[in-house]
Amino acid sequence: DLPARVRIHEVGPRDGLQNEKRAVPTEVKADFIRRLADAGLTTIEATSFVHPKWVPQLADAEKLFPLVADLPVELPVLVPNERGLERALALGARRIAVFASATESFAKANLNRTVDEALGMFDPVVARAKDRKVHVRGYVSMCFGDPWEGAVPIHQVVRVCKALMDMGCDELSLGDTIGVATPGHVLDLLSELNEEGVPTSALGVHFHDTYGQALANTLAALQHGVTTVDASAGGLGGCPYAKSATGNLATEDLVWMLHGLGIDTGVDLDRLTATSVWMAAHLDRPSPSRTVRALSHK
Ligand code: HMG
Ligand code: MG
């Protein structure tokens, strides 16, 4: 059975832009977020309060967030540690996301920590956020494969997921950071998480589309009962600390499939496509999304 409605967690302004080499002006980012909201997206990951040297593109978080804070949508932000949480809370953020890794290699590359040191860094962040009734998402990266370590054993992923749930995260997002997952692997992980006590209602999926599997993986997850799906407008993106990571599943490709299945998203696909075409012009390269290309060349 497929769900009647899917909540799209739009990550374009964060995951989509974080890897752009040329600085995108803050005002363009704010316009991007406004247009996404206008296209009907209701959860838009706006930016990250990480170390500015680690992700220079998002160093303008303090300038950007107030420009969009009045929009009637949820604006989650990434926060790696207490310093990041302070910065986010000072601006009134109501949703944060911590980001763990299922592998040691990526924990080191992305957070300069072991997997357990990173979990230890998140623990006080989640506790303080929950005290303030701030919603907390816990990302788990490298849930399926890792560029340094290869295939990632499911028990390793489950351990990190359970630790984040025990900490008090409201939801998890299962990241296929380098886009190597296939549908059977997705179903195996979801089933194992359920058996270990993590309910499907707490799980979102976050597929990068490197191998063209993101939509197939999403459909498998939907059939399992998942109703939160991450996507990036126009298929922008990639992680600066994981080689071979390409853009996320394009939001347009996702919406095309969901609407075709009769699943409600609240998204106006034409407006969304126009936004991605507009953004592609700013970034000076065409969107990799097949749906954006098809709809903009009609
Ligand atoms: P570190 O170098 O170990 O930092 O980096 P530290 O804790 O040793 O602190 C060093 C200095 O940085 C200190 O300043 C801190 O105050 C400062 P000093 O005392 O030396 O003057 N500092 C900060 N400044 C501003 N904001 C902060 C902050 N924290 C420390 N938040 C750290 C550790 C976690 C900070 C660093 O590794 C980092 O920022 N990493 C972020 C990497 C990142 O954003 N990656 C992309 C997002 S993850 C992703 O894309 C995957 C995902 O999409 C899911 C998927 O696809 O799998 C989510
Ligand atoms: Mg990602």
From TrEMBL:
Q: Which UniProt keywords apply?
A: Lyase, Metal-binding
PROSITE patterns reported in the protein's UniProt record: PYR_CT
- Please state every residue range assigned to the domain named Pyruvate carboxyltransferase: 6-273
Query: Which GO molecular function terms does the record list?
Result: hydroxymethylglutaryl-CoA lyase activity; metal ion binding
List, in alphabetical order, the GO biological process terms annotated in this UniProt record: ketone body biosynthetic process; L-leucine catabolic process
Q: Name one Pfam family in it.
A: HMGL-like
Q: Which residues cross the membrane?
A: none
Q: Which domain of life is it from?
A: Bacteria
Q: Which SUPFAM superfamilies match?
A: Aldolase (SSF51569)
Checking NCBIfam families in the record gives: PRK05692.1 (NF004283)
Provide the family line.
Belongs to the HMG-CoA lyase family.
User: What protein name applies here?
Assistant: Hydroxymethylglutaryl-CoA lyase
Native organism = Streptomyces colonosanans
